[in-house]
Amino acid sequence: MPGTQPGIGKGADLEEPLVGAFEQCILCHDASTPTATFDESTAPFGRWAASMMGQATRDPIFHAALAIAEQDADFAGSYCLRCHSPTGWAEGRVAGAGMTDGSALTGKDFDGVSCSICHRMVDPVYKPGISPAVDSGILASVTGGIPVNPGSGQYILDPVDRRRGPFDLNADHGGFFPYHAFEISPFHQTSDLCATCHDVSNPIFTKQMDGSYALNDLDAEHPTQYKYDQFPVERTFSEWAQSAFALSSIDLGGRFGGNLPAVSTCQDCHMEDTTGDGCRFPPIFTRTNLPQHNFNGANSWVIRAVRQLYPDIETGLTGRSVNDAIARNESMLARASDMETYVNGDTLTVRVINFSGHKLPTGYGEGRRMWINVKFFDETDTLVTEHGAYDVTTAGLTTADTKVYEVKHGLDAVMAASTGLPEGESFHFALNNDIVLDNRIPPMGFVNANFEGVQAEPVGYAYADGQNWDDTDYTIPPTAVSVEVAVYHQTTSKEYIEFLRDANTTNSAGMTAYNMWDMFGKSAPVEMDFVARDLFIAGDGDGDGDVDVDDLPSFVDCMAGPDATPAPLDANWDAQDCLDVYNFDVDTDVDLEDFAAMMDAVEP
Prior knowledge:
Mean pLDDT: 96
Oligomer: single chain
Shape: globular
């Protein structure tokens, strides 16, 4: 694959070694011993260490999936470790016989997506007057060639230890920054950097004219190296690139972005701007646009497993940093969506709205899902009916009676015959070549044709252009008077963790992952949204759970005067509907006496 090729030393793409985060970066950028103006709330090192980026190589779910990928396809692990241990891969401890399973990784290789990896990344597209001038020569000398388009760990790294970022450190230090070589890199403020590992394509397949994916000759490179000609494993970057956020910054009322009034890039939401200092040594610069190295996401439990499996001195984790990181992820999940409920006759409609910059959920699809849980109660507060019930003891989810948002990959008939595995849904991600279902909610700015162009269109489901929400209807039981509705997200489903345990014939990684999953709550669902409401509220004409000015037009439509039968013009209403909602005084009409009660009920 194009990009920096593995190996280190004179004549290699990488001339100087990558710096271990715990060898150098921790000395200046960690605040475990805080100063007056430099603390753990903003210091980069501790936040990075408590993220899944920082622990990408220690993730037990990853190791379990890696073992099965290696079983399914020789040398597949090299592809996975490009992003999960980029230091090990780039320095030559992965891409070789006997090493693609990660067995040769050592020391700093376990620093995950480390400081040195990101801060030595070079924009693969040279932009005169914008890119650092030195990049022109770097790009010309890359032995593997320039990536056709970003993704799948096809990074280009600065051959020497020049650390790149958005700030002019010389200007901050009176004309000379003494601590390390650096370059001002606008690339590091763009989502294109994130595309390097957050669009993942399987290059052993090539897209055919009929939309299917055929297996290439296994000893040959992909014929085009174009990611949209390969099987789409993940499309988080492309989902963003086809959203409204890629066109301009959007004001979400402070939902994301920290100090930013509006958000656009991946960094705006996942590395929110804060006020603080980035380094412990003088001269100190308190910035209002310091990117927090939180890398918040949706993972709700794996960081606890990492701390259980590895000593704190290796991970940089503490009990507090783990708890805080999980709380930040849960907060991001809660901010990613809103839920609205509407009642129309005997139907409850639940609307889930996506405010993230990509599909909801997104990323690594195996085991990740969202669902709607609905509980109807009678007048004694006794549960009448539940949809989407989850058993916390067994981690079993009832899926048949609710909406589950997820992507399901699988094998087509040709791959099934070639591998001896069943056709259809499959967790064998190295072999999958078919998208069975993708009903995940699109982001703002969604256009079907644009998403189809980047292999991210809905499959087995439909969304209209511009739709960043989804509606689900539930029949209200006759005795129900109230309802509780929740939207949940789960990182690792029971079905997926059992697959990782049972399909592993190589080592104990699957059992280790399962034991950690069991120890830490079976990936307990995280509540994203919750509504509790009465089902029938006098005056609530639009059924949204409150009485406000939006309900007045339908009231006027229903008002017919004393002793007169309501005759609404709205075809969706009949006389009984009017009496059910607006007959406050419980007589036989909707008149001025009801109007007075209606005005009292309207919320200011």
